Amino acid sequence: MTKNQKLLTWVEDMREMCQPDQLVWCDGSQAEYDALMDQMVASGAAVRLNPKLRPGSYLFRSHPSDVARVEDRTFIAAATKEEAGPNNNWADPVELRARLVELYTGCMRGRTMYVIPFVMGPLGSPFSLVGVELTDSPYVVVNMRHMTRMGTQALEELGDTGDFVPCLHSVGAPLEPGQEDVAWPCAPMEQKYIAHFPEDLSIWSYGSGYGGNALLGKKCLALRIASLKAREENWLAEHMLILGLTDPKGRKTWISAAFPSACGKTNLAMLVPTLPGYQVETVGDDIAWLRRGEDGSLRAVNPEAGFFGVAPGTSYQSNPSAMRTIETNTIFTNVALTDEGDVWWEGIGHDAPAHLIDWQGKDWHPGDERPAAHPNARFTVSASQCPVISPDWEKPEGVPISAILLGGRRPKTVPLVVEGRDFAHGVFLGSIMGSQITAAAISDKIGQVRRDPFAMLPFCGYSLSAYLQHWLDAREWIDADKLPRFFHVNWFRRDEAGRFLWPGFGDNVRVLEWVVKRVNGEVEAQDSPLGLLPHAKDINTQGLGEVDMDTLLALSKEEWLEEAASIRAYYEQLGGVPAELQALLEDMEKRLK
Questions:
Q1: Which is the catalytic residue, given 220, 263, 386, 460?
Q2: Where in the chain is the domain with CATH 3.90.228.20?
Q3: Could you read off the pLDDT of 401-445 as tens digits, one per residue?
Q4: From the CA atom positions of the chain, what is the Rg in Å?
Q5: Which pTM does this prediction carry?
C-alpha cells in the first residue's frame, strides 16, 4: 500500500461515488496477472490460446460497438472553448463533471474497483510521470501491466508526497444482485465519454473498455494530458515512434517519426533493413516525450512499456520483428481464432484455414464477405520481448534525436521524401500533413484524406494553432546546432493502375539512408516549391528492379496548387495559425506559380 495521503483520499472519494463491491490495490505481479486471466477465462471473457502454439497468450472479443477510439465522444473540458481549439470537442468543465458524476454514481456496483498505480516513462527518469487508474475492468488491468510500469514499483516512484495524474475509468455497466455479467461489458455509444480536465490534469473515462479509451496511460495521459504539461514546461509530447539506425560505418542516428494511426509506425520502428550493413533498433512505436538534454540536444523517451499494435497486415513479410515479439505472452483483441487454438487475421501472410471463429465469436469460412478479424484488431505485448528492442530504450536521459520524419497515407500528390529547408519549414511540413482515414478510429469517412498536423489531431490537449506555435518556440530551448532536421515521407504513392510505386517495409531503409546522409552533410538536395528533394540517383535502388523514381519524386503544379488551397482552408478552420507558417504557405504558392 501507500502512505500518500492525497492518493488515499482520492481513492476513497471515488470508491464512495462508484460504490464497487470490493477494492483491490494492484501490485503488478505475475501471480496477480495469472489470477485475473484465470478468472476471465472461467467467466468466458477470455480464451486461453493453445500453450504449444502461443504460450502465455489470450484472446478477447469486444462488443461490436466498442472496437476503436471514439473521437466523437472524446472531450477536452478546458475553461474556454478557445483553449480547447476547433480540433477538439469542447465541453464546459462544470457541466461535464456534473453529467459524469451522475453516470459514475453507483456505476461499479457488483464489480471490483482495481487501483492501478503506473509510471509512464522509464523508472527514475526526469521525463517520467506517475498516474493512478481506477477501473472496474480486469481486462484493463492486464493490458496496463504490459503497457506501463505498474503496481508496487509505481507506488515506490510516487512516494508519500509525490503527485500523480488521477485517471478514473468504468465500463459503465453496474450489476444488480444475481445479474449475470457479459463477456464484454460497456455502455451505449451516447453514454461513452473520454473526458480530460486541463485544470487539474485529470482523466475520466466512462462506457468503453477498448484501447485508448480505457488504457488511460496511453493516448489520454501520454498525449492529451502530457501535451498540456509539455506546453507549460517547455517539452513535447508527441505521437511518434523512436528508432536507432546504425549504418555500415558503425554510426548511429536516432530518428523519431510522426504518422497517423495504422500508417506503418510499428513496421518502421521495427524495420528489418534490406540494405547490408544497416541495423535498426526500437525505442518505441507510438509515443515520444521530447525534452532538452543536458547537452542541449532534443532527447526522446518512450513513455510506454509495451506495444498496442494493429494486427491486420502484420506478417513475417511486413514486420518479422513484431511477429516474433507476439509469439508468446500476448493479449489479442478482436482477431480470429483457429480450430487449433491459435490466431489469424487478414494480411497475416498465409491463407485462412477452412474454418475460423471470427472476432464476433461466429463461424467463418474463406469466401465469407465479412472480415474474420476486425480491421482494428490489436495485440498487446511487453516491449521487452521485442527482438530488436534497443539497449538504450529505458535510458533515463533518453536518446538524442537528429531527424524527425512526418508522413501519412497519400496515394498521389506527395513525393517519396522531401526535407524541410530549416526548423521552421520542418514545422510547416508537419502542419500540412494529411492522411487517408483508417479503421483506428470509428468513422464513416475511412479512405478520405484529412489534415492531421504532426499526427496529433485526435491527441493534442489544446488548440492546434497554439500547439504549432509551441513547436516553433522549441528553437528557444534546443541548442541551434542540435536542432533536428525534418523529412516528410510517403511510402504509399500509387500509379494509375492503383499499384504501389515504392516497395516499402524493409526497403524504407533506402530512404532512411538518404536521411542519414543529409543529416551528416554527405549528399546534396535540390530545391523545389515544397522543400528539398533528393536527386533520383541518390536513392539507392540497387536490387529493386524497375522503380519509377521520377514519379515518386514528382511534384504536380496543379495538384499542389489544389493542395495549397486545401491547406489554406484548413489553417482557417484552426482559427488561424502562427504568422510564420502562413508566410511559408504563401511562399510555397509563389514558388508553384
A1: 263
A2: 237-304+390-592
A3: 999 999 999 999 999 999 999 999 999 999 999 987 655 555 455
A4: 23
A5: 0.96
